[in-house]
Amino acid sequence: MKLTILATSDMHGYIMPTNFGSRNQNQPFGAAKVATVIKEIRKKTAGPVITIENGDFIQGSPLSYFLAKQEDIATSRQLIDCLNLIGYDAGLLGNHEFNYGATYLRKMEAAAKHPLICANILDETGNPAFGKPYIILEKDGLKIAILGLTTPYIPHWEHPENIKNLTFKSVVETAKKYVPKLREQADIVIVSYHGGFERDLDNGKPTETLTGENEGYQLLQEVKGIDALVTGHQHRQISQKINGVPVVQPGFRGEYVGQIELNIEKNKAGSYVVRASTEKLLATGNCLPDKEISHFLLPISEACETWLDEPLGKVKGSMRIEDPNQARIAEHPYIEFIQKVQMAAANVDVSGTALFNNDGQGFGFTITMRDVVTNYIYPNTLAVLNVTGGELRQALERSASFFAVTVNQQIGINPEFIQPKPQYYNYDMYEGIDYTIDVSKPIGERIVSFRYHNEDVSASDTLEIVVNQYRAVGGGDYAMFDASKIIREVQVDMTELIANYLAENPVIEATCNHNFHVIVGN
Asked: pTM score, two decimals?
C-alpha cells in the first residue's frame, strides 16, 4: 500500500497568483494553484491521500489584511473558505495566526471545516487551547495519526494581549509525550510542525542561536517513532531524509506542495511497517489556478484591488527604492518617512524601523494603498520603550551585526541574515540619533559614534524610543528589549497610521538627513 501525504505551509493569505504590486498578475504561487496540484494528485492516486495545512495562512498578504478589517464575518472568513474548498484533513496554527488577535483567530478556527491540531499550546487549565493535540484517521484500513506542533517562541514576538492565558511548551518535550502513545494507537505517525531547523541538516552544526524557535533537528534526534515530518515557518524548500525520516518544507505563498510517499506493508506479525519512502516538492508555478476557488474569490478580490488602488498622497521628489541593500547602508527617503510616521504617532523623537525584505519598491509620485501595504508588509502596532543609552547601544550593535566586509573590502551582508532564512527585517535603522557603524570592527564593537541632541550618549542616559511591537518584546534576538520596558502603546496598526499621516500631509517631501553612516574603517 502507498500512503501519500500532501502538505502546504506559510501561504500567508496568498490565494490568487499575485503579489499585489499590480493587477492581473500570474505569479508562480498561490493557494488557487496549490488546489490544482492537490486535486490532480487525488484523482490519479490509487492509495490513501492525506492533506495537511501546516500554518501561517490567515495573515501576510494585502488580501488577508483587507479581509481582517471587514466587520462582516461572512466576508472575512472567505480566506478560510478557500481552504475548505481544497479540503484538508488537518490544519495547524502558525505563529502569525495570532497577529490579528484572539477573537479573529477563534472566528477563523470556527470557520475551518478541517480539524485544528496543536499539542503544545495550552490554556489556563493545561489542556490544548486550540482543537485537539492530534487526530487519528482511518483510510483503507490504515490508522494514521497526525500530531500538531507549533513553534513555542511566539511570546517573544506577539503582543501579550493576543496570547493571554496561553502557555507554549517545547516541541521536543511535547513530542516525547505523545509520539509513543500514538505508536500504540496507530499504524503510521505523522508529525506536522510549524517550525523549522536550528542546525545544518547534513552536519548538525547550529545555523542559528538555539533559542527553541526551531527544534526540528533536535526533534528527529531525540524522538523515535516518527514516520514522516512536515515542517514550515522558515519558508525554506526542503525535501530530504533526516535520520531516515522523510521531511518536507514547501517554501511559502503556495509556491510548492510538499509530497511524502510511504510504501507500507504488513509484517509477519500482522503489523503495518514502512518499507520505503520518497519525498519531493511539487512546484505550482506552471499550473492554472483552480476554477472553483477563482470563481468563489472573484468578488472579494476585485473589492480588494479597488481598495488597493485608492490614492492617499503625493511625493515631492523620489522615494523609489532602486537598491534595497544600499538603502540599508545609506539612509533612504522611504525609511525616513516611516520614521516620521512612527515618531508622530508615538510623540517621541527617536524611532527604529527596518526595510523588511527586498521586494518593496518605495513610493512613486502618487502613493496608493497598494504602495503602502506592499512596502509595509506586517500588521505591526507600535510600542514606546524607556531604555538606557547602554541598552540602545546594544540594539545598535545587534543591528550592526547585519553587515560583513567582503573580500574586496566592500560592505556586504552577514550570511547569518540570509541563510537558512532571509532576516532583513532584523536589521534596524534609527532616526533621532546620530551614529556610525564601522563594519571592519568585531561584532559587538562596531558603534564608533553615538549621539543624541548633539551630545554623546552615555550608558546611564535614558531615552524614549518607538519601535514595532515585534521588536519591543525582543523579537529578532534583541534581548536588551522586553515588555517590561514598554511605557505606552499605539494600538493602531502601521498601515492605518501611514494612511492617517498621508491624510494630514497629502504632499510629502522625499528627504534624508543621513543621521547614520555605515563605513569600512582602517
From this structure: 0.91
